[in-house]
């Protein structure tokens, strides 16, 4: 796709957005915890003059899994090969793990490559599981076993810190057109901002979670991301399968990669927010 074609596609998207309103998508079971603080639901959703219009839709029954993979390090300095780029090895591993997950019937799977230099997580594998919670749990168990086998340091010659968890999509701000059941990027210029947070169990109270727009930086990103980057959705994920509670904010932009300089201006602010959150 040429730059002129990309620009024309972007103009069509902006024209379409003018006729639709951004919307919150929050599972009914999570309304008490993730409906933003200060927002109240109308008593009669059918009234035409409500500030908030409510539409009940079928639950897409989506559970996702993030596999966060740290940097590769040779298990012994003597085994380090200066002719081998560890990021290339890492990418090949990510592709192998993605293929294995698809063999275990993941609905969709993607590899997120980190554009930051010396990032904690150079690659993140993202799996979409359109199954019941029980079946998703079985996928998680099988995929975790396969991943540990593939990343065995003695077999691989490299060691890597990595974690995998199941996550629920607890709240989303989406820009029409909306299809909650599918995550496939709409353009080849799609890019993502991913922010990871962790708190102790017990610190994830209702008041804390109802203010998620602020402590995640989602509100700041929503208000300040340039229109050209094509914001599609901000989705907050939550997992509590381990000793701590993990949250991942995923921000999808359909024209991030061809407007990367504009989008990157906000990242130092977001990184600062995340660092402050971790120090609290």
Descriptive report:
The protein is α+β, with helices and mostly antiparallel strands and 280 residues long. Helices cover 33% and strands 25% of the residues. It has ten helices and ten strands. Strands 1, 2, 4, 5, 7, 8, 9 and 10 form an eight-stranded antiparallel sheet that branches. Strand 9 and strand 10 (244-253) form a beta hairpin. Helix 3 packs antiparallel against helix 4. The longest helix has 18 residues, at 86-103. The radius of gyration is 20 Å and the shape is globular. 26% of the residues are buried. Mean pLDDT is 83; it is low at 272-280.
Distance linking N and C termini:
45 Å
**How would you sum up the major sheet?**
8 strands, antiparallel
Strand coverage percent:
15-25%
- How would you sum up the global shape? globular
* Uncertain residue ranges: 272-280
Structural class comes to: alpha+beta
The rounded Rg comes to 20 Å
Query: Helix proportion of residues, in percent?
Result: 25-40%
| Number of β-strand runs | 10
The run of helices and strands is: HEHEEHEEHHEEEHHHEEHH
SSE diagram, text form:
Elements: H1 3-17, E1 23-25, H2 31-34, E2 63-69, E3 73-74, H3 86-103, E4 108-113, E5 123-129, H4 133-150, H5 153-156, E6 158-159, E7 162-174, E8 191-200, H6 206-210, H7 212-215, H8 218-224, E9 231-239, E10 244-253, H9 260-264, H10 267-279
Antiparallel strand pairs: 1-7, 2-5, 2-7, 3-6, 4-5, 7-9, 8-10, 9-10
């Amino acid at each position: 796709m040429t730059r002129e074609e990309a620009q024309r596609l972007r103009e069509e998207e902006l024209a379409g957005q003018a006729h639709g309103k951004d919307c919150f998508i929050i599972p009914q079971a999570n309304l008490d915890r993730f409906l933003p603080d200060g927002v109240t639901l109308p008593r009669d959703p059918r009234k035409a003059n409500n500030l908030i219009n409510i539409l009940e839709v079928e639950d897409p029954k989506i559970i996702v899994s993030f596999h966060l993979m740290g940097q590769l390090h040779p298990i012994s300095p003597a085994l380090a090969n200066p002719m081998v780029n560890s990021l290339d090895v890492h990418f090949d591993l990510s592709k192998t793990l993605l293929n294995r997950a698809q063999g275990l019937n993941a609905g969709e799977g993607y590899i997120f490559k980190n554009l930051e230099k010396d990032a904690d997580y150079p690659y993140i594998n993202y799996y979409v599981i359109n199954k019941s919670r029980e079946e998703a749990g079985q996928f998680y168990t099988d995929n975790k076993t396969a991943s540990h086998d593939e990343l065995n340091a003695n077999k691989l010659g490299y060691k890597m810190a990595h974690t995998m968890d199941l996550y629920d999509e607890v709240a989303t701000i989406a820009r029409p057109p909306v299809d909650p059941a599918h995550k496939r990027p709409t353009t080849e210029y799609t890019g993502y901002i991913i922010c990871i947070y962790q708190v102790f169990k017990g610190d994830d109270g209702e008041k804390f979670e109802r203010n998620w727009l602020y402590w995640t930086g989602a509100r700041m990103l929503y208000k300040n991301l340039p229109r050209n980057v094509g914001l599609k959705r901000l989705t907050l994920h939550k997992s509590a399968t381990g000793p701590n509670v993990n949250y991942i904010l995923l921000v999808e932009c359909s024209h991030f990669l061809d407007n990367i300089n504009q989008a990157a201006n906000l990242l130092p602010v977001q990184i600062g927010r995340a660092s402050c959150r971790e120090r609290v």
